[in-house]
Design brief:
Layout: E1 6-11, E2 14-19, H1 30-45, E3 51-55, E4 60-62, H2 67-70, H3 75-81, E5 98-102, E6 105-107, H4 109-116, E7 119-123, E8 127-129, H5 143-151, H6 153-162, E9 165-167, H7 168-173, E10 179-181, H8 186-198, H9 202-215, H10 220-233, H11 238-248
Parallel strand pairs: 2-3, 3-5, 4-6, 5-7, 6-8, 7-10
Antiparallel strand pairs: 1-2, 8-9
The protein binds acetoacetyl-coenzyme A.
Length: about 260
């Protein structure tokens, strides 16, 4: 399958998706979201693929929603066809783990897309921000909500109200990104992390992803009950037996994803 705005590569069990509109700093146009969604559907349906890595290029992960495409949109138009926001949440609904490997600008929709992923590995030149206020609008695909959850109210207010950018060091310190790596190696580090996850039991990975996500949306008591149930449920898996027997026999487990 070939696409106009993204590149799709298989690296073993890892699907590497590269945002590919370099002339527009990977601005997120409607076609890009359509193509991204198509690829995510394909990856989810493919048992050979376990983890997704989404990246951009050295200068930009994505500098936001495509302002050229949006600028003449009307309120009525946004209400009737949902504008750019109609199909931009697919990544956050993906059952398989998704890692964002971010170098350069991740602004507006770019920062929002990165935050829809399960975690972000950043290059040391990464810059994050929600600069919508500087162009007379507000974040539209999760920025004010997910950023606040990740970095807290003070930082989120500062970022959203001033429109300033956070560098990679500040992003790691405040919990927006999980690791900062040199520009020369950040993508390899993200791909290695993806390969490592792909080597585990896929049903266990799926349960774990859901548990961590649900912690953001449920009370601690409900979350703990859910975790306890899921912990017990893993004992119905062949992979739990294999993992623990392999440990006892001092060998590497051979997971069958059952
Ligand atoms: N949409 C469309 N085109 C964009 C773009 C965007 N978000 N960001 C950059 N580009 C284009 C520029 O127009 C320029 O195109 P031309 O060469 O044809 O003129 C090209 O990419 C290179 O950009 P610059 O010349 O501006 O590069 P720079 O290095 O001087 O500046 C930048 C880089 C600071 C990131 C600057 O491009 C910028 O501020 N971009 C806009 C950032 C922004 O406001 N993002 C939020 C968008 S709104 C949004 O995302 C809403 C939402 O929540 C869904």
């Amino acid at each position: 399958m070939s696409y106009e705005t993204i590149l799709f590569e298989r690296r073993g069990a890892v699907a590497l998706i590269t945002l590919n509109r370099p002339k527009a700093l990977n601005a997120l146009c409607a076609l890009l979201f359509d193509e991204l969604n198509e690829v995510v559907d394909e990856v989810e349906a493919d048992d050979e693929l376990a983890v997704i890595v989404i990246t951009g290029n050295d200068k930009a992960f994505a500098a936001g929603a495509d302002i050229q495409e949006m600028k003449d949109q009307t309120y009525q138009g946004m209400l009737s066809d949902n504008g750019l926001t109609k199909n931009c949440d697919r990544i956050s609904l993906c059952r398989k783990p998704v890692i964002a490997a971010v170098a350069g600008y991740a602004l507006g929709g770019g920062c929002e897309l990165a935050m829809m992923c399960d975690f972000i590995i950043a290059a040391d030149n990464a810059r994050f921000g929600q600069p919508e206020i500087t162009i007379g609008t507000v974040p539209g695909i999760g920025g004010s909500q997910r950023l606040t959850g990740l970095v807290g109210k003070a930082k989120a207010m500062d970022m959203c109200l001033t429109g300033r950018m956070m560098d990679a060091e500040e992003a790691e310190r405040t919990g927006l990104v999980s690791r900062v790596e040199p520009l020369a190696s950040y993508l390899e580090v993200a791909l290695d992390a993806a390969q490592q996850i792909a080597g585990y039991s896929m049903p266990v990975v799926a349960i774990l992803k859901q548990l961590v996500n649900s912690s953001l949306e449920s009370s601690l008591q409900l979350g703990l009950i859910n975790e306890r149930q899921q912990f017990k449920a893993t004992f119905a898996l062949d992979d739990q037996k294999e993992g623990m027997v392999a440990f006892s026999e001092k060998r590497k487990p051979m997971f069958t994803h059952r």
